[in-house]
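Internal ticket - ligand job 1116, heme-A:
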Amino acid sequence: MSDTAIFPVTLPASSAKPVAKAAPVTPGKLAMWLFLATEIMFFTGLIGSYIVLRAGSPPTAYSNKYSPNTPISAIPNPEEVTFHKWPLPYDNAVNPLSIDLTAVNTFILICSSVTMVLALGAAQRDDKKATTRYLLMTMLIGGTFLGVQVFEYYQLMFGHLYPVGVSATGHFRPNVSLFASCFFTMTGFHGTHVAVGVFMITCCFLQSLRGVYGARNFASLEYIGLYWHFVDLVWIILFTVVYLI
Amino acid sequence: MQRTGVEKMSDHGHSAGHGHDDHIHPAPTNFLSKYVFSTDHKVIGIQFLISGLIMFWVGGLLALAVRWQLAWPWKPIPLVNSIWAEYGYRLPPEVYNKLFTMHATVMIFFVIVPLLTGAFGNFLIPLMIGARDMAFPKLNMYSYWFMWPSIILMSYSFFAPGGSAEAGWTSYPTLSSFSWSTSGSFNGQTLWLASLLFAGVSSLMGSINYITTIIMLRAPGMKMFRLPMTIWAMFITAILQAFALPVLTAALIMQLLDRVVGTNFFAPANWMVANSGNVVGGGQVLLFQHLFWFYSHPAVYIMILPAMGMVSDIIATFSRKPLFGYKPMVFSVSAIAGLGFIVWGHHMFQSGMNPALGATFMLSTMMIALPSAIKTFNWLGTMWGGRIQFTTPMLFAIGFVAMFVIGGLSGIFMAATPVDMHIHDTYYIVGHIHYVLFGGSTFAILAGIYYWFPKMFGRMMDERLGKIHFFLTFIFFNGTFFLMHIVGMHGHPRRIADPTVYEFLRGSGVVGMNQFMTINAILLGFSQLIVVYNFIYSLFLGPKASANPWNSNTLEWACPSPPPYYNFLKIPTVYRMAYEYSADAVAPADYWPQDQPENSEAVASAH
Amino acid sequence: MKIERFWTLVFAIGAIFATGCFVYAPFNDDWWLIPNVSSVGKEVDHLFIIILGITGVVFVATQAVLCYILWKYYDRPGRKADYIHGQMKLEVIWTIIPASILVFLALYQMGTWAKIKFRSSLPKVQPVAEVTGRQFQWVFRYAGEDRRLHTDDDIFTVNDFHFVKDEPTVIHLKSADVLHSFFLPALRIKQDAVPGLTIPVWFDSSSAGKFELVCAELCGWGHYKMRGNVTIHQSQQEFEEWLKKTKSEQDRDQLSLANAANGG
Ligand code: HEA
Ligand code: HEA
Ligand code: CUA
Ligand SMILES: [Cu+2]
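stdout (structure tokens):
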């Protein structure tokens, strides 16, 4: 560690302007990275649990004819039933998830990361109009992602009736199977993070209308951008492990 | 090496000297912003201190009720027995479970962690690195105020239907995740989970703030390897906290969802408890234990590392000798933290986890004793050849070393998997817990209070009362907890309301020991009234303290006692390590503060 | 006496008290490990005593050094503290010595652990019983005439465990509701009963007699009273007579069968 850290005084985070010219990172950025590290550990906890739970799921946990985790002793004709350890993609008898819709949604979220990069770039170039424009786009695209997710949840929980292999009640809700529990918890927490991100980007957008961001002031865009890319990255991992494999 | 450091420093010192006045944040203007919603790290530290000490009494009194029941099972507890009038004044057995569950929860999450990281971390970090405040003072304030929902939820849970949680502080499912499994598993457990989530958020905010502050806001010349041990320990602790706590958050959330939404994480397929309805299940019971200990093992080091740091500083100061082996000390703190992440399985040797995994966890657990050994020997090395001043803080610090060794060595028994098979979940473990957490962390906290009280409040505490307090605490502490090892190896299980159910615990020896421990515990509790009196009396009537009453080297003693809201009028420049005691260069003075410029002849003679 | 010397004595008394407790313990049956009857228990006790010896030496040594320091180096007029920042050689010594002790301990116990808990070392015998913990009792299912579990002639007992002396004995441990822990203090055996898992546990006993079974994992309000009786029979014959007797009582008392089967 160098001995260059010389901020004789600090002010509350919102107005923290680093005094030292030589400092490689600002306190805000460091704190943001640390925050993301804690978030990584949080999602590691969830994803790690998912992997362990899935690996430990008994080979007869899901079947095409009985509700999840029906004891095999209660099944009169086990030879005629197809059992699964875990619901596989596109296997409609046990897996209710619409992968195509979500794939499109994933693409949408990635687009919003791109527009966020563009917004930050515009601010650094001092192009205030473009900053506002890209922020608006990010906000709308992020909102679209959320909208699709809400729609997906609605379909799963209320909109559709699924075969008994998915759920004893026909509705796919957090309590109907371990798969459902994992799905809703992981995507739900990710969705909450997206919602927080959209809220913050909306605030930035409103600020940018007042021309706040420019070449001399883009730190908060940078931090929120970092967060937004992180949320995007988590989604790609979640989409892979929950939907695709 | 020192010389070049100084040269480099001087121009930083210069630039720092420029126009810092306009950066001093404005003085708080009214009562609310000064004492309640303060963003001043010192006020926040003291807020943590006071709430922690109050909660200490809550936890302590719960423990005394636990002890009463163990010594005289089912005999009405004096003073509070009317609560259970409808049960014939007898303590209902589930209440016993609530008592120790809440005792441990309060002690760990509302006393030790907030006192060590919240109170001392907040108060000391900016002062000891020569900063005017934390990197994010507002975040710091939120960190304190997030404790309150947590405390309120936890306190409210005592009055919830079914009472507070009673699944132990470890809260293992399925006892904790099925509402019907035990009476504390109704809303009490839900409130417990919610409360700990708030406490977690509070800690996370704190740790991000500490890490950033220590990395970014050090005074000119304060290289990482000039930081006092306290700050190193706080730094490593904050990192541990930041990386381990989110996993606990995930685990608590999953348990909460299991309870309120009916998810299936921690219940096996088609499970039921106490004639409740079946759940679909399909999850794994042991998964929670893994997640819990992945946090809670590092958490026990979170509760000892800052204590070790503070003790290192106090021992060096009162031995009037440089800390022995500063770098080995720093490396062992880091090693404890690193290894701390791979030993969690030692709590699960008998849990049904794969025994081969148990063997690897045993190996890593043995290894983690090594850095602690290095630290112990370095403390002894620091005192060796010193000029030991038996002040109250020093007595508690020496007590820490003596008692931590006992707690640590009992850990070796438990690390040995076959031996753990016999002593797991017995009072042997309870003895270990209290030697490391009371004899260790709590002794260090008391040492810290006596040591930094003058800086915090500008007055000295009474030394004579302090010494009496130490004497009684030391004696009664050993009287309370040492025999736990003995009954534990005899087979006395922990968490049982009435040991006399078992024939092998009915012997007069065991019963006698239980009563002896209880009497000592009560006396131990009463002895703490001395420090309360001393604390409150000195707060108002103690003699005024000078800026540096202990002739110490670290930066916090460079500003007045108590420090003004901006800490340092001029940001100090640091010229050397914190441990230059009894250096020839400055004789006859036996200390050489970090911020004191060296005159050239002194430098010449020192090299 | 100088007050500084007094503090040395206080710390010394603490250390002497601690050491004294363990020196006295073997002479009082209520203090020491309860008498062991199993072969694995012998190894556990042996390990315990080795570790007690090692840690005892370490403890006495560190406390003695501490007291010596306090006695010798207290502050007094004319005393000047040494000015030394550390010494590499010492650091190396006190890293290597504890490290080798710890590595020795780690390796030394590995065999015992493997022998007790590894699946591979499970004796190849039929399990004598299936043991199910439930709030707040132990339910035992013994094989009947056909020597097989989970058949119609199974025999059930509650809180009453029987097996035979000198025979390697295997049980299958289960839980019906929450975590419990199967703890036989006299045999040094402990294993948690985990909902959803069936865990085989083996042990043996070198003497017959009556012992106690403890539930060692918090399982609810009645955890403290979840106690079982253990009877170790002199011979296989005696055990089978007991089984027969229990079976006939059970057939007479259909109600108890129904009750117990709920838990099994
Ligand atoms: C501050 C808290 C703290 C600290 C520092 C420690 C330190 C250690 N702990 Fe402890 N532990 C707890 C708090 C702590 N523990 C708690 C709260 C529990 C119970 C949780 C519950 O179930 O409720 C627990 C439980 C616990 C268990 C589980 C027991 C069980 O449930 O069956 C184990 C098992 O290995 C263990 C081991 C150790 C070891 C090896 C150390 C080591 O770090 C100790 C190292 C120190 C020394 C060894 C002493 C100094 C060294 C020397 C003098 C050198 C020479 C020594 C040798 C050569 C041996 N601890
Ligand atoms: C820091 C942690 C800590 C502390 C300090 C204590 C303190 C005490 N503990 Fe605690 N205990 C635990 C942590 C702690 N304990 C844990 C983690 C468990 C495991 C729980 C579980 O199984 O889930 C446990 C379990 C436990 C048990 C086992 C219960 C069982 O398994 O059935 C017992 C039994 O005797 C016990 C007793 C005591 C006693 C008598 C004290 C006494 O020392 C208390 C005396 C103290 C006071 C009366 C208050 C003193 C006040 C101050 C010092 C404040 C000073 C104020 C100013 C300076 C202004 N504890
Ligand atoms: Cu069963 Cu405790
Ligand atoms: Cu641990």
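Auto-summary: The pocket of heme-A (ligand 1) is lined by residues B 170, 300, 303-304, 346-347, 365, 368-369, 372-373, 376, 405, 408-409, 411-412, 414-415, 420, 424, 429, 432-433, 436-437, 440-441; C 55, 58, 62, 98, 101-102 (CB under 6 Å). The longest helix of chain B spans residues 93-129.
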